[in-house]
Amino acid sequence: MKLYEQVANQVKERIDLGYYKTGDKLPSVRGLSQEHGVSISTVQEAYGLLIDDAVVEARPKSGYYVLQQQQPPELPAVSSPAPKPLVVAQWQKLQHMIGEYGRQDLVKLSLALPDMESPTLQPLTRLISQISRQETQRIFNYEFATGSVELCHQIARLAIDSGSRLNPDEIIITSGCQEALSCSLRAVTEPGDIVVVDSPSFFGSVQAIKINGVKALEIPTHPETGISLDALEMALEQWPIKACLLTPTNNNPLGYTMPDENKIRLLELLSHYDIPLIEDDIYGDLSYHLPRPRTIRSFDTEGRVMLCSSFSKTLVPGLRVGWVAPGRYYEHVKMTKYLTSLSTSTLSQPVVSEFIAQGYYEKHLRRMRKNYLRDRDTMIGLLKRYLPDGTRISYPQGGYLLWVELPGHVDTNELNTLARAQGISIAPGTLFSASGKYKNCMRICCVNSDSPEIEPAIARLGELCHELLAGSLLPE
Amino acid sequence: MKLYEQVANQVKERIDLGYYKTGDKLPSVRGLSQEHGVSISTVQEAYGLLIDDAVVEARPKSGYYVLQQQQPPELPAVSSPAPKPLVVAQWQKLQHMIGEYGRQDLVKLSLALPDMESPTLQPLTRLISQISRQETQRIFNYEFATGSVELCHQIARLAIDSGSRLNPDEIIITSGCQEALSCSLRAVTEPGDIVVVDSPSFFGSVQAIKINGVKALEIPTHPETGISLDALEMALEQWPIKACLLTPTNNNPLGYTMPDENKIRLLELLSHYDIPLIEDDIYGDLSYHLPRPRTIRSFDTEGRVMLCSSFSKTLVPGLRVGWVAPGRYYEHVKMTKYLTSLSTSTLSQPVVSEFIAQGYYEKHLRRMRKNYLRDRDTMIGLLKRYLPDGTRISYPQGGYLLWVELPGHVDTNELNTLARAQGISIAPGTLFSASGKYKNCMRICCVNSDSPEIEPAIARLGELCHELLAGSLLPE
Q: What is the ipTM of this complex?
């Protein structure tokens, strides 16, 4: 940890412990500098970090003050999915949603799209032009099946931040994280097998399980600490489970990050039963606070973890650049990837690689972390204001997705039908379960939640919820 | 058919029938113009076409003369594969080959790479820059799961040339033809099923069959007319076959194009047994002579044919743009594609679409057809000169691949090991069979076969063959 980060952490600790409360003036720069024996500029950097994290505000010519810390929302209940493996349903509903990507006429709270208008993305277009002109023959040709050597090198470098020492030649580039997940799943399962997942669970994983002819066994999941390890242990004892598929950091949709001790215990359990873990880390780099949480892969000494990720949420999805470090399953995943699509789009790979190498990725992430934290708090504020009493909301520490549990018998499929008629889309909870649970839940994307169209949209959603609760609307 | 094409065909027919022999002077432009009642310029265009096809040469101030027509080579024998379904092997050998894409130090006769240095490809780079600047937000986002509407429209327009009336919304864009084949296969088979293929057969299809846990039943195949329909009928009678996978036009590797009557009878057979056909048309647009052969899909009235293709062989592979028109299996293929990789690289799609719309594709194809015909003849000439007597060579009417059957017991895996040590790679025949047949065969790519490094490479290959035949080299 850098010096200024240490200073910032110590100031933050004093606030968390209650020594300084909202509105209190914090120690002066000179005072902190003397106390810690560090330079003035180090303290200024520390305060800069706390401002970025929305912990502190600077008042001109006065000093630094503690900001109002938002009260965390009331969290959703721990889930209690069906305790048996199920064939996944829900494809039809998913279809509606995937038809929405290009639509301009909807307020799309349903989709997990990142902010694609940030000025920190501008170098991408320049790199596309430049590389396509300077390396024409290269970008016309197939890339190696395992991907661009330079890009693998950059990914290995980034992985150090999540505690992993990856060798570039352990990495396989894929067409987005979905291909990484899907190839990993195919490499370690056969039709009829059982895979354990958290619950709720990302619909892309759940549906990929479906088309592989595999059954999903959903495990009760806590909205802050993730999958219940006791429940998992019972399941491993009871069923012939072939793999475990999780998003343990900044989870989609529930927002949890498993604490390190849970990550370690999970790995021990899987090791005991000799089962591979497919770890989806796609939102890991979007953690609001640094250092970002470690991946489970970073604790793995057996090559048991197949670490999957992509640049679709941290950068832009249209480039379709993802990757997998499949550990001991490398050869099988490599073959599966090759026979699925030969190789990944050649141009996208040096574009992403250069974007990282030239320092743009770090700069972009810094901005996005700050913005998404603000977006999360804005959206939670709106949801608290407009949705019915008793609504519970997740409290993620990274990413830009919220899981919302509505009170009573509000069916979010009905809510979505009504909302779409008024130009608003949400992701109904049933999409995130093999068995169609979570009827009263929905996933909300909070990117740019301070845009002018968002508040009216949430207000309208709130009205629809109230009407559904009052039974004054007849379902179709 | 256009008027000048009709005139050209009539002149060609007289040559084929022997009315004009090599070196003979052909009728004058004025004469033909009067005979056919067409304009001078129409006859000039007709002769232009015959010059492009290397049938005729123009001698300045003298007229048009019949060129030396190359004697077709002696064709490979009709194949006789194992008459039972097999689990596919050969992955290890394929790995060597896929490691070669980016290597600069090899004369790569092994890979099916198109000519990527043609000046007719130059507009691609301009379009990449232009579209990424002008439509930044669009190319950052996911494309619809089924692909760009404009590109589907262009593909439907091109399909008219192969006799098909496709509706743009019947088409799904994929990451190359391999994803189209792989998703089609997954949509209509389950592990343990049997799929019939031609023999030899494209290794990408054969291996995709393998990783889907499906067995391949190879059918005897004629080097000019393709799969034996009588053998197919017997197989359909005998085995519970779930799908048929073929490249019926400008086949890879054997070069055959099934005659229309065979295509029609194949479809009738499959209809009788209610079995889907996965038709790989990736080399279809590279037919040397116009009009190009019809696809089997163009005869299909039942939605039975899943037509797969891409721009990897006609344009460049690095863009990873392929497509499938899956007929009645549309919904299942759409789901499989989505859950395999969500959507295809967004930027590549408008680039290809504009390249077609602005007329560059047609211009490029015109040039490539002519060049690849010349490359085929040059390569056949070299192979006849340097390879041992008794060598048989395919005689494709499109594309740029030759299938070469060596005499005696030359093992092309050994040949490849020896050749690679001297900087030359070939594709050993065993790659093209589920059961590792075709040990004495190889596939040779003939793109740019008049480049200075090709003749010495073929000469060296010939020497190695002679040495292997003489038994003077010990295998490793």
A: 0.87
Rg (CA), chain B: 23
- For the purposes of burial, counting CB atoms within 10 Å of the CB of B449, is it exposed (0-12), middle (13-18) or buried (19 or more)? buried
Query: Contact A318/B121, CB-based, under 8 Å?
Result: no
List the single residue in A113, A125, A213 with the smallest CB-CB distance to B133.
Answer: A125
Instruction: For the domain made up of B119-360, give the CATH fold.
Output: Aspartate Aminotransferase; domain 2 (3.40.640)
Mutate which of A341, A351, A355 to disrupt the B interface (most B C-beta within 10 Å)? Answer: A341
CA distance A316 to A120: 12
Q: Around Cβ A416, how many Cβ atoms within 10 Å?
A: 25
| pTM for this model (two decimals) | 0.88
Chain B interface includes A148 (CB < 8 A): no
- Burial pattern A254-284, b for ≥16 Cβ within 10 A else e, equals bbbbbeeebbeebbebbeeeebbbbbbbbbb
Q: Count A/B contacts: CB-CB distance under 8 Å.
A: 189
CATH 1.10.10.10, domain B3-66, yes or no: yes
In chain A, residues with a C-beta closer than 8 Å to the C-beta of B176 are 341-342
Which residue among B121, B208, B344 sits closest to A339, beta carbon to beta carbon? B208
Contacts of B125 in chain A (CB under 8 A): 132-133, 136
What gap in Å lies between CA A306 and CA A310, rounded to an integer? 13
Q: Does B339 contact A178 at a Cβ distance shorter than 8 Å?
A: yes
Measured distance CA(B464)–CA(B387) in Å, rounded:
9
The CATH class of the B91-116+367-469 domain is alpha beta
Of B116, B133, B190, which has the smallest distance from its Cβ to A141's Cβ? B116
Q: Does A142 touch chain B (CB under 8 A)?
A: yes
Q: What is the pLDDT along chain A (476 residues), one digit of tens a residue?
A: 789 988 998 888 888 777 788 888 898 999 889 888 899 999 999 999 888 877 898 988 889 998 877 678 889 989 888 888 888 776 777 777 777 766 778 899 999 999 999 999 999 999 999 999 999 999 999 888 899 999 999 999 999 999 999 999 999 999 999 999 999 999 999 999 999 999 999 999 888 898 888 999 999 999 999 999 999 999 999 999 999 999 999 999 999 999 999 999 999 999 999 999 999 999 999 999 889 999 999 999 999 999 999 999 999 999 999 999 999 999 999 999 999 998 999 999 999 999 999 999 999 999 999 999 999 999 999 999 999 999 999 999 999 999 999 998 899 999 999 999 999 999 999 999 988 899 999 999 999 999 999 999 999 999 999 999 988 555 44
Topology of domain A122-360, per CATH?
Answer: Aspartate Aminotransferase; domain 2 (3.40.640)
User: What part of B 271-290 touches A (C-beta under 8 Å)?
Assistant: none
Which residues lie across from B277 on neighbouring strands?
Answer: B244, B305
**B65: its two tokens:** 């003369």
Q: Chain B 301-330, CB below 8 Å of chain A: which residues? A: 316-320
Strand partners, B403: B443
Boundaries of every domain in chain B = 3-66, 91-116+367-469, 119-360
